Structures are given as C-alpha cells and as structure tokens.
Amino acid sequence: MLKTSRNRDIVHWDAEDVDAWEGTDGRTPGKDIAKRNLIWSIFAEHVGFSVWSIWSVMVLFMPQDVYGIDAAGKFYLVAMPTLVGAFMRIPYTIAPARFGGRNWTVVSALLLLIPLAMTLWVMAQPGTSYTTFMVVAAFAGLGGGNFASSMANINAFYPQRLKGWALGLNAGGGNIGVPFIQLIGLLVIATVSNTAPYLVCAIYLVLVGLAAVGAALFMDNLGNQRSNLSAMAEALRYKDSWVMSFLYIGTFGSFIGFSFAFGQVLQINFLAGGDTPAQASLHAAQIAFLGPLLGSISRPFGGKLADRIGGGKITLYVFVAMIFAAGILVAAGVLDDSMAGAPTGAQMIAYVAGFILLFILSGLGNGSTYKMIPSIFEAKAQGHDEWSKDEKAAWSRSMSGALIGFAGAIGALGGVFINIVLRMSYVSDAKSATNAFWVFLGFYVVCAFVTWFVFLRMGAARQSPADGRLPESAVTA
Is the whole-model pTM more than 0.85? Predict the structure, then answer.
C-alpha cells in the first residue's frame, strides 16, 4: 500500500494483502488506515442522513392552521426527499472512484449547506406556497446520495472477510442520523417551543462544516478503483443484482419509509385522541426517534450475523419476522377500525410495538443484504480462472460498489412507496392506516419467498456463477 503524505492519495490499495493489512511488512497497517476512513465516512454519512430526513422533523413544527398543509400533504412532503435521494444515489455511487473518496466526501458534505439554508428560510415563511415547500424538500434529497458514495468508498477499503461488519457499521452509523435529528427536534420542541425549527437547521449547519473539515484532514483517496456507469451496467447483467435490489426495497425501504412516516402516524393518532397540535407534536416526537435509533443500532449486527451464518439465511429469517411484526399492526388496525373513537392505550402500544419491531428487523436485514452483495461478486470472480488474483479482486470491488449504489437507489424508492401507500390509506373511506399495513404484510411475504427461492433453494446452490445465481460459497460466506 503506497501513499503520499502530501495529498492523501493512496496509489495502490489491496485490502486482501494480509501482511499489508496487519502492518507486518513494516508500513502503516492497512487496518488503521481503513478504520480512520471508516470513522469519518460514518460521520459524514450520519450528517447526510439527518439532512435527508429533516422534513420528517419539520412536519412536526407545521400545524395545519399556521402552514395550511394537511396530513395528506405532509406525507408527500416527506416522500419528496426520499424520491430525489433515491435517484441521487446513482451518480453518487460513481463519484468516489471518479474524484476520490476523500475529495467527494468533502464536496458532498458541503452540498448539504444548500438544503439546510433553504429549509431554515422557508420554515420562517408560513405563508409560502406548498409548491415552494415541495421544491425545498426536494433539495434535502442531496443527503440521500451520501449513503451510496460512502458505502462504495468503504467497500473498497475492507477485505472480503470483514465487509459485512464494516459495511454494517458504516451504514448503521449513517442511519443513526435519522433518529439523531429527530431527537434534536424533540429537544427543541420540549425545551423551546414547536415554533422554533430554525434551531434544528442551525445546529446542522455547524455539523456539516465539521464533517467537511474532518474528511479533508483525515480521509484518503484510493487510486486503483473503478466504478462507473459501464461497471454498473455490467453488474446489472446478473440476475442476482436485480433480486438484491428488490430485496433492499423490503429492508432499507422499510427503514427509511417508516423513519419518515412514523412520527406522522403517531401525530395523527394523538390528535384523534384529543391532543392539541402542540401536544401531539411533542408526544409523537418523544416516541418517533426510538424506531430509527434501534433500527440503526441493529444494522451492524445484521452484517455480523451474516458474516457468521450467511447473508441469505439471515435475510430470510428477517423477512419472516417482519411478516409477524406487520401482522401486529394489521391486528391493531382492524381492532381500532372496529371501535368508535380514538385508539385505546392497548392499541397504541400495539402500534408502537409493531413499528419498533419492523425498525429493528429492517436494520438487521439492511446489514445482511449488504453482506450478500460483495459475497455474490466474490464468488462469481472465482469462476474466472483466466484472471489473476488482483484482477479478480478489482472486478469484485468494482461490481460490488456499483451494485451497492444501484440497490441503494432502488431500496430508497421503497420509502416513497410506504409514504404514498400510507397517504392513500388515510384519505380512503376507511380513514386509517390499516389497508397500508395489509399491503406491507403482503410485500414481506413476497420478499421472504424470493429470498428462499433464489438464494436458499438446493437447486440454486448447485448453480455456477456464470448462471447468474448465487453459489453455495456466497450464501454461507
């Protein structure tokens, strides 16, 4: 591993070189360099996730009688950053290899100043049109792209045997940005008032600056990386790539969708129970951050379990458990709909318990699915006997990085789907979320079946990498 200390460029990086990784060759241990980049990548991605989800907090500061936006409009308002962030993940995936991981982390962090400044301004103008709010919310989607570039960058730093834990830790640390900004929103509502959203924006203007400075001082660029649109196109030639992208809708799509919608669902229920708008905002904020927090914490453990047991198995177990969790929401919703008035205390507990379980399980599934991606291409690379060891490693890293970005983009669209389904359910004749809960349950059944059918069938295990299926070595890696 050769690097120049002046411009923080690493000319050649081979994470699979055990001597270089451990530092037994007399140079700086590769694991120390990778750890330093991981730490600042997590922080920058953490801030990006917070900015991406800022409107899940802002809607709690937007009583309808002041801003003129009803609950249905708010679901679209939080769906807009999700949609834009999904598409931003495609170019962001390519950027680290094109411009350097360190360089792009600095740039992508500074870009977050734009949505923060716009959000601060527009929240101070309650009479602003709904269209303007939607445009400003769209700029928050820039934060969604940070995940793809961060994951593609860290994927290149770590050896295959440690990717599950490293990618899970990177993603989990980034995901915690969602509950963190919700917690800051709670503190502002509880200690100041629910009319001071500008404080949340001001805090993050400072954090963005810290992320950019930290990346500039402590991160590195890798010179031997390849990730471009042609690599992404090549990765998408394999059936497994499309299957993984679909499954990621069920794991990450659930996490980000529920993260943006959970507070609104709680707020609607508290308002139905007789709370004033201010009380409903406070009570929703007191609970809403717990789901994303636990989902973020569980993500690295999903990767670690996948390292030990196998990504395919853990992912299947997760989807089966998510079917059960969605069943709790369906049962609570059916009982609630059958009774007049606001939800009872027991029904509210069931709603919260069901959502919390879904958050934890989606976090585990996020970690396990992202372990599967590099395992798939590592196994496929071994089927090319005409390639050298270095060529196999380079191809695997390139394909994994490309698919991580694409799957992340498709998965994020699941968040849009969740908010739109919830909105449709609330504006229907039923005026509740129960129909949406049924849709979620059915989708998890499909995800569980697809996971088993493609990755765990005995027939799939006997296929070769050239057939586009995941071989046994990748399932159990």
Answer: no
